[in-house]
Fold this sequence. Notes:
By secondary structure, the chain is an all-beta fold. It has strands at 12-13, 19-24, 36-42, 51-53, 56-63, 66-70, 73-77, 82-85, 91-95, 101-108, 116-118. It has a domain at 20-31 and 39-103: Jelly Rolls, CATH 2.60.120. The strands form three sheets. The chain has a six-stranded antiparallel sheet, with no helix packed on it.
Amino acid sequence: MLVQKLQDCPEFIAGDSTILRELLHPDKQPLSLRYSLAHATLPAGKTSQPHSLATSEVYYILTGTGEMHIDDQTQIVQPGDAVYIPPNTRQFISNSGIEPLVFICIVDPAWRKEDQTVY
């Protein structure tokens, strides 16, 4: 059994400028997973760097409110919202609230640097 504790995962600034902690990744743990799972935080008033992935991604909003941008579409997101981000779409998220915007990121197949383009 593998139980990954958030506080035990190193925090780093991702290529899209969010504060990230990778919880599960098949290249980093002996797991039979197709996907990767990360915990992201975006401080109040901040916007992630526009980027695209060659893979699909899902954001699940835990706390805070924001605006999700996918290509030419924008939608308000809040706790309990799941956002599907299709492959090869330009995406970014803005924190429009007064508290940190915290969300889970699932990338399938698992995130790889070479699959990401930052604009």
